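INTERNAL AUDIT FORM
Audit reference: QA-55
Scope: verify that the stored structure record matches its stored sequence.
Auditor: D.O.
Record contents follow.
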Amino acid sequence: MNNNKIIEEIRKLSDLLSLYQNAYYLQTNPLISDLEYDRLFDRLLFLEKGNPEFVLPDSPSRRVGSDFSQDIPEVLHSIPVLSLDKGYSVESIRDWMDKTISKAGSELSFIVEEKIDGVSIVLYYKKGILNLAATRGNGSVGNDITANVRTIKSVPLRLTEDVDIVARGEIFLPLAEFEKLNSLQEVPFANPRNLTAGTLRRKKSIDVAAVPLEIFIYEGFMDNTEMNHVEILTFLKKLGFKVSNSIGVFSSSKSLTPSLNSGNKESNSLWFRGDFKSLSGYVKKHTKERENLPYEIDGLVIKVNEIDVRESLGFTGHHPRWAIAYKFESPEGTTVIKEIDVQVGRTGRITPVGRVEPVLIGGSTISNVTLHNQEYINILELAIGDTVSVSKRGDVIPAVERIVDKNEDNIPVWKMPERCPSCKQDLEIKGAHLFCVNSECPDQVKGKIFFFLGRNQMDVEGFGPETADYLIEQGFIKTIPDLYSFDYTRLEGLPGFGSKKIKLISNGIKKSLDQPYSRILPSLGIPELGKKAVELLIISGLRDVDDLIKIAAEKDVDKLVSIKGIGERTAEIIINEFSSTIILDLIKDLKTAGLKFEEKEILKQDMFPQIFSDQIWCITGSFENYKPRSLAENEIVKRGGKTTSTVTGNTTHLLAGESAGSKLVKAKSLGTKIITEEKFMEILNNNE
């Protein structure tokens, strides 16, 4: 067979198979039997294998994926890929719509779409051919996962028209497929989104092809278009994209609602059309029906339909002004307030905490809930004995949402104490909160010592909270400098303190003297001086604590504000704190103890190859060469990485030592990259 005939047959087979794939996966209308489809597909693979130079860029064979390992490079987005502002009630959404109409100065229509709980993707097409598929990333830069996305059957490799277009969508795994795949896992994935995200970042696209991922496209961007969003969605369907049919179109009057009959009338037949009064019912209906959907959604997205108005409204640094997400209410449970305690933080802030009858919410048992401050309690009119509805806000922090039933004993609304429960001194109001301003308050002192010793601060090996609490209660330790002056041999013979433990504590304290200034300063618990702020100060040339003391003495706010990332409020707090005799005496005593308040190494971007840039690491387990573990954390930060104490969907790497435990299990379930100590040291040595 000559080359022309081979090329002609490859093109014909590709066109036929693309047609059949489109009919099967997008229209759920198979045109031929599986046996006939496989016969054609095998013929195409045979021709392509023998003539690789004739393989088309949109060949259906690319759905199969490759078993070659691939890197996941970064790419720059040509459109802003931002997150959305959020609302939690229909009223807040209507307020946003009214304000948006007011800003636009004209009548507007709005589109309401399901907010798929999946992985955001941006697809770039040139002359109708899929050229690039990139993750959202940080909104400006994403990861190129084109080879993996090509394996998703509902992603068109070639459009029906030779257009240049950028499409945004959400990749997800249907619930039925998730349950099927999860049943085969030794360690099950927490949810479909995590499995989807982990799958898309696999090194071999052939592994991605084995997972039946789906996609919905919800935005299209083209140059010089005069279409509105309804027309764009219709055009996207015409091009071969999979667009959800669960869409509502609303305006002030149903007669003003944009026509759904443009383009393919049948494709829009399932869309809802109504006025603003019908929005509440539409939202309630979708909130109720979300449990019956074949995929997970976590809210609805409301968008301005008119594209020219979108362009005039523009963007903030975080989200478009022409769209907002309606978030479904978090999981809730009903329980009873048994008592309310008051906690004193290390900064002196007084926080009420409700103790409730244990209640199961979102897979965890809740016994304590935050009550924020007196104003929050007054708004709720909350009293001990009240039956309340409790939610996990953001699915993390338990909080009282509302009162279900008042107590039967006529107990009045709970009031904050006038005196500190720890030191009995009068409290002061600062903004919406009460504070104990006694720097020697026992609970504040204890909180500062706990913070200083903590794993994410000085990370003193062998010195856990229980040990610290015992030494404080016994009067052995009263201040942070006491940690370095106390003779730990005095603990010999006391319950729980054998010679081995005493040696471990002493060695931990001694090793902490080697911690760098960039670690020590944030550990003092000075407001606004966290790790990032301290790093900014050091990079700017303020490498010695005496530099800060001098700036504070001269009240040189401008010097601090000139540093990128340091705002006026932070600058004023730094000046106030480093003018305080309490802070100055603390630094003096710690210097005497041997701690270093000067950075020997200049933290500049060009000192260390930034091999961990845009990466987020979690460190867990015990290590042979990194005792304490903060030594490994320092290596990551110096090379541009960030660290976290928990494993989440944003965590890119887990540095796992011996006895890694639950964090290792979670990292595996999320598809997070696991790095051993040996591999970590190899990476550092080779600057990979």
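Auditor finding: record pair retrieved intact. The CA atoms of residues 200 and 531 lie 32 Å apart.
Action required: none
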